[in-house]
Amino acid sequence: MNSQKPNDDELPSFRLDGRVAVITGASDGIGREFALAYARSGAEVVLVSRTRDKLLEVQRSVEATGGRAHIVPADVAKIEGIRAVEQEVSRLIKGRDLALVLVNCAGFGFTKPALDITEEDWDRILDVHAKGTFFCCQRMGRLMIEQGYGKIINLSSTWSISTDMGKSVYGIAKAGVSYLTAALSTEWAPLGVRVNAIAPTSTLTESTSRSFLENEARAQRLLSRIKLGRFASPSDLVGAAVFLASPASDFITGHTLFVDGGWHAGL
Q1: Residues catalogued as catalytic
Q2: pLDDT in tens, 11-27
C-alpha cells in the first residue's frame, strides 16, 4: 500500500476513508476531539487511554455519528500497554486494505519550579510524553512500514520553543517530541511513512480551565502572548489533525505545525 502522486486535475482529498486512526489519550480533551473528527471524516478509530469508562463514553459518541470505534484501555507510558495496542491494531488491519494513522495525544500539562522538581516528576513527564510517544511510533511504525504507507502525528507544544516559569521539564519533553518527529521522518520517508507534529498553544480543556481559574495572573500572562487574543480550544486543532492524516498532506513530513494563534511569531 503506497501513495501515488496526485493527478494534477484532481483536488486533494481531506477524507479519511479507508484509514484506521489510533489515537492515544482519546478519553478526553484534545484526543477525544480528534477521535470524533476522524470518525466524521471516514476513519475507523482505535481509542487508547488508561480509563475504560471514559473510552466507552467516547466510543458511544463516535458510534452515535455513524462511525466505528474500538477501545484499548492501556497506559502508553509502559511498554506492555503499547504492546496491547499493537496487538489490537494488528488484529484489526490483518487482511484488510487499510492505511494506518497514529496520533500521539497522551499527555498532561505540568508547571513546577525547577528547584522543586523531583525524580518522580521527571520520570512521570518523560515516560508519557517522550518514552510513550517514541515506542508508540516504533510499534505502529513497523506496521506502517510493512504496508509501505502510514501517517504519524505527534503532539508537541509551543513550550518546545519558548519558556516560562515552571516549564523546564515539560519543555524538555515537548522539544524532544519535535526532534523525534524530524528524526523519524528522516529514517522512514523512504519507507512510505510520514511523521509530523502539531504544536498547540495553551488549550482550554477541563483540566487547564481549572488551572487558569486557580491562577488568573498566570492565565492573563499566557493570554498576552497569543496574538489572536484568546486561548485555543480542542476544536481549533482539528483542521490540522485531519489534514495531516489525509492524502492531502502526503508530500509533508518532518514538520511541526504550530497551531498557536500567533504565539511563536517573532520568537
Answers
A1: 170
A2: 889 999 999 999 999 99
